[in-house]
Design a protein that fits this description.
By secondary structure, this protein is an alpha/beta fold. It contains 17 helices and 22 strands. The strands form five sheets. Strands 9-10-8-11-12-13 form a six-stranded parallel beta sheet, with helices on both faces. Helix 4 packs across helix 12.
Length: about 475
Amino acid sequence: MIALSLAEIAEVVGGQTHDIPDPSVQVTGSVVRDSREVEPGSLFVAFVGERVDGHDFAEAVVAAGAVAVLGSRPMGVPAIVVPDVQKALGALAGHVVQRLGATLVALTGSAGKTSTKDLIAQVLQSKAPTVFTPGSLNNEIGLPLTALSATDETKFLVLEMGARGIGHIRYLADLTPPRIGLVLNVGTAHIGEFGGREQIAQAKGELVESLPEDGAAILNADDPLVRAMASRTKAKVLLFGESGEADVRAENVRLTDSGQPSFMLHTPSGCSDVTMRLYGEHHVSNALAAAAVAHELGMSVAEIATALSEAGSLSRWRMEVTERPDGVTIVNDAYNANPESMRAALRALAAMGGASRAKGGRTWAVLGKMAELGDEALAEHDAVGRLAVRLNVSKLVAVGGREASWLQLGAYNEGSWGEESVHVSDAQAAVDLLRSELRPGDVVLVKASRSVGLESIAEALLAGGAQGEVDAR
């Protein structure tokens, strides 16, 4: 964080200082909520959770070098006490962002947020110092913590914004007002909570409504609900996608033998070839979104294409591709899942399987529950199972309870290939099955919602060889 004295912080957040001998002492380190991340000069933010009360760690974090604690009660250590810690954290983040003068880029969407955020960050880092959301810390706590990690050298701040209801993105955008707002898509993630895609569109569109007149809204030309958001902003609108009307688009899209996308990138300033290190054709849309942001910020098409071609995956368990010594390839995409991302991952698996089939290898889709789909759950799981058949994925292993049975049933009902599908009760059963049947050249995709924890399958297959058990969950 930029250096601020405890007195300044107390004034910004409307707090009272307690047990602080010298209010002019500055916070020169990071602002953290995890006591394990404290370093000399840190400010520790004490939240009261369901199982852990951050105030209980006050003495330990000060002993570890924290300058003070931001909390809701005195703790006998240097502290700034406020009525609402979350509100105070947001106020501090907004103050720091205003002081910095960095260009703030915010993005949202039903699928692909984190992968696209990582691409934007890597492209902009090639131009100037950039701070961006780590992983998927995109809520009312993660976003301000990310903003507070910016320093005086930061030129670009890239913030991912998530939502589970109307008003959530408006709240985040009010905390840290963006100049550039990107909306990727409106899908079915969390549809059970929102009640429908129109409600999701209403929530995601709050981002473009927050933009200033001299800002820019980057919108997906191929998603009608996103494109319609152009009417909800006074900012400049820049379209990306496959549509001929898109300002930033891709032509001659193809996949390499290993499943990595290659295309000709077109921007208003010219065109250039891109071959990505990431896997799956769905990353083309993510790359176009990143390219549109970079174009708006003044990068040349050659600079953008080079950065996109060099960019890798920064976040764990998102199409992580690892080849074992025996020639089996494990694709760990188990961080999260919704119908759109599940379809994209299956298509990527099918593309990667082209080269493996030539060597006698097979493709395996190890899939689990997609959460928060409400009344759409049965139909969406059934559809994913059917898609696996249509893409000629060799084997489907559906892991878990009711939703997994719907995946398997969809595959079985799609055609005779469905006999190659199997439903197993848990991760250990899946690992046992795979260890007994995998052979060199096989490609294994592992994917489900985060709550299912199927990354343990991928990790067991990579670490355990033919022995050992999956971590209990």
